[in-house]
Design goal:
The complex is a heterodimer of chains A (185) and B (263). Chain A is mainly alpha-helical. Chain A contains nine helices and no strands. Classes of the chains: A mainly alpha (185), B alpha+beta (263). The interface between A and B is large, with 69 and 56 residues.
């Protein structure tokens, strides 16, 4: 793993303070990271009201579970993003099944590839992951990205990509194995 | 029926969990596993480390301000304190710092020192009179658990444990203000083995007085989930008051080590 950036260290320190019940540290941590976490929730839920509620859920958990943060296992940003993702996914799973042939759902599957220009401001961990993603077969890469950003289940992904469920599972699982090999190399 | 590809190696389920492709039941199953198996928790953490950097791509969006207010209110946290800028008042807050420095096992000494420190303040005819309050938060066995000193002008309180307090695993001490005839108000989490400085907002300051008391209850580490004490009260203490001086509180101090089970 790359050396944590100074900012990452500052966030970890704040989170450690939050674990001790420091409300000021909590507010400061929120101020510094909530826009990114709100972005995560918005991207998955595509509904401002729901994203706001998921964000609230995530920060409520962050306050209560800060003692479980272990700076040796995860960066503060990974820990917080995971909370936000999990709250958003919980909400997605509570929604009623999306109609399988809803054309609006198909529109959501866009081939969103980041522009290289944006790379400079990204973390070293991100650039490594991007390099490994770039080695995947394009359809598989798109499936992994869509899965990560949308929080969709295998079933939903298969429908959106109009491939059999088994194919989708196979794409994603192969991609995950390949990513692990590439990242852990 | 299972083709090889349907039989995901079990460790891939952790990757699938982190990626977010599992349905609600499968997610719940992985979460149960994580709670009971270190190996599962570590495997998930490793996948989070691998995949979460992808979130870097997401465009940050500022949430509306009321989201923070809801979070804060939902957790029963205090409204942001608008503290006056530090006034050049020599020695007064420093005396509280002195408590910090003094640390453990010293509440009686500290109380005595505070009396001494406050003497000049009481006599000082020029400087605006500072306002202090103090409370000895006493355990059921009659021993002082913590000593709290409140600097009303600065809106701060220092809570010093008399000695390291043994706290049940998975619990943390939370300090409450007990206003007369009202519900307890959360002041903040306090350390059991070190001094804690807490900010006092206006609502709390308004309720501090000789009729109020402080109490410490055992709560989950992040604090009471309900905004009210949920665990046993392990210490309690009256807040000391001082005579009025020119209509203003001068130095409020009465450390009473025998306070038990009040209010």
């Amino acid at each position: 793993m790359s050396t944590p950036t100074p900012d990452g260290e500052a966030l970890a320190r704040l989170l450690t303070q939050v674990a001790k019940g420091d409300e000021r540290a909590f507010e400061e941590l929120y101020r510094r990271t909530s826009a990114r976490l709100f972005g995560v929730c918005l991207r998955m839920l595509r509904d401002r009201g729901e994203a706001e509620e998921a964000l609230q859920d995530a920060w409520t958990s962050a306050w209560r579970r800060a003692t479980s943060f272990d700076a040796g296992k995860a960066s503060a940003m990974t820990w917080l993003s995971t909370l936000a993702r999990n709250k958003a996914i919980d909400r997605l799973r509570q929604r009623r099944e999306q109609p399988l042939d809803d054309p609006a759902m198909l529109d959501l599957l866009v081939d969103e590839e980041p522009t290289p220009a944006a790379d400079a401001q990204h973390s070293q961990d991100y650039r490594r992951l991007r390099d490994c993603l770039d080695q995947l077969e394009p359809r598989q890469r798109r499936s992994v990205r869509e899965a990560f950003f949308s929080g969709a289940t295998y079933n939903e992904l298969a429908v959106r990509c109009q491939v059999p469920l088994g194919t989708m599972k196979s794409w994603i699982r192969r991609s995950l194995l390949q990513l692990r090999t590439c990242l852990d190399a | 029926m299972n083709t090889p590809i349907d039989e995901a190696p079990s460790h891939l389920r952790y990757a699938e969990y982190v990626l977010g492709v599992l349905d609600a039941d499968a997610r719940a199953e992985v979460e149960r596993e994580m709670a009971t198996s270190d190996a599962a928790a570590i495997a998930v953490a490793l996948w989070q480390r691998r995949l979460l950097p992808l979130a870097d791509e997401i465009v940050p969006t500022e949430p509306p301000p009321y989201v923070w207010e809801r979070i804060r209110d939902g957790l029963g946290l205090r409204a942001p304190t608008r503290m006056p800028p530090p006034v050049a008042r020599p020695g007064l807050w420093e005396s509280l710092r002195f408590w910090h420095w003094l640390g453990l096992g010293a509440s009686a000494v500290a109380a005595a020192c505070l009396v001494l420190l406050l003497v000049p303040a009481r006599r000082g005819p020029v400087a605006p009179p500072p306002a202090y309050m103090a409370s000895a938060i006493t355990q059921d066995n009659g021993q002082v658990g913590w000593t709290a000193t409140m600097d009303l002008a600065q809106g701060r309180m220092v809570v010093v444990p008399a000695r390291p307090q043994a706290i049940a695993a998975g619990r943390a001490p939370e300090l409450w203000l007990l206003p007369p005839g009202g519900k307890p108000i959360a002041v903040g989490m306090i350390a059991s083995d070190a001094p804690t400085t807490l900010a006092l907002d206006r609502a709390l300051l308004a309720r501090l007085g000789p009729d109020a008391a402080l109490a410490v209850s055992l709560e989950p580490p992040g604090g009471s989930p309900t905004g009210q004490p949920t665990g046993p009260v392990i210490a309690k203490g009256a807040i000391g008051a001082s005579p009025e001086s020119g209509g203003k509180p001068v130095a409020l101090l009465r450390v009473n080590p025998t306070v038990r089970g009040q209010a």
